[in-house]
């Protein structure tokens, strides 16, 4: 059975995140009555906000009583100190959410966003041991290591079998997107880094590894991911399947980095000897950002709500090639693509226009 997008009701879980905001906007544009769940109780314009904690089963049941969504998109996760905690918290979140929705018997499709740690391993064993060759394919067997993505999938599969809804899993790479109040975003992070470099008269130094500087990689546009989620929900070929989702092109940072520097009017430096991390280079720059925010009338003077140095360092510091295969999705009928260079600069300009970055 396919979801009728002309008169459906959808629930976006993690609606304040970089992917959740993109999914919510896509649903609204497609005519869905859209609800958005978050701990803060905030949501994008046009979305009915639902305030709840995924770790509180009783609170979830109360908050979701009467919502009765047909389509559910799960885009939220919480990072903990150990993978055992990640599994308990994030697997439990999916279990609690789907249990809270069971009484309404309304759910027809659930989309779960995960990522490439499905192939690379969890934080504790990231990119170590045996891994499949790139580009990564969806049919690769799970790695022999505990992984909260696997726990989330298992909770999804169990509930789908019990309740009779279809599902899809969407494995994204590094996400480019537009989200306010969400710092796990490489575009906003690099925009903030560029502004601080310009203010302090510093070169725009690539912070990552030699492998990421010279190697081929890809990324995921948040709006493309949203498109794939809606497609999977509305097409039989998208049901009960896991799909990679990346822009469809490939690039090298040694090609894109000089263009980013030029966009911001900065001199640049590539990889030289060893990674020169953002966490180290940007230590103590909170005051500089407050000065920048005051000079340019920015909406956010708290640097931690704009930039996430550790997150970008992690993506750019990997010592392995990371590339995904999109053929399964294309063969099934989803043929959406994005130009990664255009994606970066489009989002950079959106942040500037919204006065998130100068």
Description of the molecule:
This protein is of the alpha/beta class. It folds into 2 domains: 9-172, Rossmann fold, CATH 3.40.50; 180-217 and 251-324 and 337-354, no CATH class. The chain contains 14 helices and 11 strands. It has helices spanning 18-29, 57-64, 83-101, 117-120, 148-163, 186-200, 210-214, 222-234, 253-263, 278-281, 286-296, 309-316, 327-332, 340-353; strands at residues 9-13, 33-38, 48-51, 71-74, 109-115, 166-172, 175-176, 204-205, 220-221, 241-245, 268-269. It has a 7-stranded parallel β-sheet, sandwiched between helices. Strand 1 (9-13), helix 1 and strand 2 form a beta-alpha-beta unit. Helix 3 packs parallel to helix 5. Mean pLDDT is 94; it is low at 1-5.
Q: What is the number of helices?
A: 14
* Unreliable parts: 1-5
| Major sheet: arrangement of strands | 3-2-1-4-5-6-10
As a percent range, the share of helical residues equals: 40-55%
Structural classification:
alpha/beta
Mean pLDDT: 94
Instruction: Kindly estimate the percentage of residues that lie in beta strands according to DSSP.
Output: 5-15%
User: Could you spell the SSE succession in H and E letters?
Assistant: EHEEHEHEHHEEHEHEHEHEHHHHH
Count of strand segments: 11
* CATH fold title of the largest domain: Rossmann fold
C-alpha geometry: globular
Domain PRISE-like Rossmann-fold: 95-358
InterPro entries: NAD(P)-bd_dom_sf, PRISE-like_Rossmann-fold
Protein name: SDR family oxidoreductase
Organism: Mycolicibacterium hodleri
